[in-house]
């Protein structure tokens, strides 16, 4: 799962709320195997269209769906309105492992 956050009305509030309130909720999300986030989103050309990004790994699509439908997943989804005033785009996709 990837969550792409557009620039919020108050970037400082976003950062503070995200780290202080939202990420602690993420840490208790059932089925989440690993997660990463960044506020340092850059584009190779021009201005980046997003302010922040979150990546979450689940065992498979069924595990992700169960996590999103869990009480914790519903609380996480509802919490987005508390900091992401610019909106959020959530995408998911199966990952193909590869080696060089």
UniProtKB/TrEMBL annotation:
**InterPro entries (alphabetical):** Dimeric_a/b-barrel (IPR011008), EthD_dom (IPR009799)
Q: Which residues form the EthD domain?
A: 8-85
Which Pfam family is an annotated match for this chain, by its short name? EthD
**SUPFAM superfamilies given in the database record:** Dimeric alpha+beta barrel (SSF54909)
From the record, what ranges are coiled-coil?
Answer: none
Top-rank taxon, per record: Bacteria
Q: What is this protein called?
A: Ethyl tert-butyl ether degradation EthD
Which residues belong to the signal peptide in this entry?
A: none
**GO MF annotations for this entry?**
oxidoreductase activity
């Amino acid at each position: 799962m990837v969550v792409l956050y557009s620039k919020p009305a108050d970037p400082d509030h976003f950062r503070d709320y995200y780290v202080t309130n939202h990420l602690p909720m993420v840490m208790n999300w059932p089925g989440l195997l690993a997660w990463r986030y960044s506020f340092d989103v850059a584009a190779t050309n021009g201005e980046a269209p997003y302010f922040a990004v979150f990546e979450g790994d689940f065992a498979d699509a069924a595990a992700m769906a169960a996590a999103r439908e869990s009480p914790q997943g519903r609380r996480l989804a509802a919490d987005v309105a508390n900091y992401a005033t610019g909106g959020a785009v959530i995408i998911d996709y199966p990952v193909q492992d590869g080696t060089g």
